[in-house]
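User: Can you predict the 3D structure for this chain?
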Amino acid sequence: VQLQASGGGLVQAGGSMRLSCTTSGITFKITTMNWYRQAPGKERELVATITSGGNTDYADSVKGRFTISRNNARNTMYLQMNSLKPEDTAVYYCNAWYRRELWGQGTLVTVSS
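Assistant: Here is the predicted structure, written as structure tokens:
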């Protein structure tokens, strides 16, 4: 069982970035998936959720800027991040509950001002 986040890097404020979370060992199409992030010195926070039926929910701080999506054929979840701000700088983790709580290894997003 594995969750693998990728796509992070350095971007200027106002820019865009897309994160991917590839999965293996789970029945992806029935699993609710989440993106979390943890900024330096702060607690990990839930950023976005997508259910197996495609319903989505977002933290207030990213509503209107981030879009979570999934491709069940590819067992992959995405996070499209637009209008990035320096305060979006964090390590982003994919997360799921499948028999137990699962975490990916995290991918660092740095937004420069």
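Residues 41 and 111 are 16 Å apart (CA to CA). The chain has a mean pLDDT of 97.
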